[in-house]
Amino acid sequence: MAIAPAAQAGRVSFGRTKDGHAAHLYTLTNKNGLVVRFTDYGGLITEIDTPDRLGKSANVALGFRSAGEYEALNGGYGFGSPIGRFANRIGNARFTLDGKTYSFTPNAGPHLLHGGPPGYNMRFWRVSMKRLGINHGAVLSLTSPDGDQGFPGTLRVRMTYTLTENNELRIDYRATTTKPTVLNLTNHSYFNLAGEGAGDVGGHIIQINARSIAETDGLALPTGRIVEVAGPFDLRSPRVMRDGIDTLRAAGRGGYDTPYVLADAPRPTPAFVARVTEPTSGRMMEVYTTEPSMQVFTANHLNGKDSGPSGRPYVRYGGFALETQHLPDSPNHPEWPTTVLRPGQVFRSTTIYKFVTPVDRLHN
Fold this sequence. Notes:
Layout: E1 11-16, E2 22-29, E3 35-39, E4 45-51, E5 57-59, H1 67-71, E6 81-83, E7 89-90, E8 94-97, E9 100-103, E10 112-113, E11 126-132, E12 135-144, E13 155-163, E14 168-177, E15 181-182, E16 186-188, E17 205-208, E18 212-216, E19 222-228, E20 239-240, H2 241-250, E21 257-261, E22 271-277, E23 284-289, E24 293-297, E25 321-325, E26 340-341, E27 347-356, H3 358-363
Antiparallel strand pairs: 1-2, 2-3, 3-4, 4-5, 6-16, 7-10, 8-9, 11-12, 12-13, 13-14, 14-27, 15-26, 17-20, 17-22, 18-19, 18-21, 21-24, 22-23, 23-27, 24-25
């Protein structure tokens, strides 16, 4: 989406929602030509322009051209979405906290997915643009009232997007609550390092720094077993994504929709967890996070009916998501890192998406 240079430092119109609420698009840039755009509608990351090995930029984030197009997804997740109040699945759409059971309307078979509607990707966030030293960022704020989506406690969320001169898109989360609640926040961007709409991502090379996964059933809900990676799930060494997808399809799995275990507890500072490379362009994305888990998802459900700014359809496997978070269904597994947040506590989490090319890596 072309934005006039004079508008890049502030905000421009991004259309209106069905109720007439005006949405705005914001732009972050750095000295290397990396561009990140996001909107106050949903806090959605709509575009990430990054150079290839020859210096040619392309948008590598799947997205759309207006708030109305996002709204037309009817709450569909992905496409740059912040996810809350609880990312991923809660088994049988219920959990018990401090002796009280909370039940929800299922939206993924018998389970609750991504906290249920209306998701944080359908809310208007308050945006404050900031110049953070040599970095360029924005603080997005949202208040989720007590009982919102069925969860207890008024939750106040602050999400900071920072674009550094090291080509890092850093996302920092901070949240507090007025009552004991459960919380699992993430970003659900789909990436295609060849460019959005450039076909499937099977030719990308993926590496995940994880020795185990949470075993899941046919509905992607953890069984409770943590198992060592093996076969297509072993991504400790670089692997062509198509090889793993094809193996999982043959087993009836459709593709990757897998919770990788990164650590036994949240880390105090972001650690390297993943690297994805697109060989033709030379673009590479690395992920660093404080979170103890990461859901790897290869957009198994896309079917070509949607298209982005390029006008090209978003086909099956047309993007991949690396969703840093706590394990799915954690409220029903007290043996796993807790997702409980209590009054007086402050939830903090950081994830960094770093964009490099092999030439950059050689020079640095």
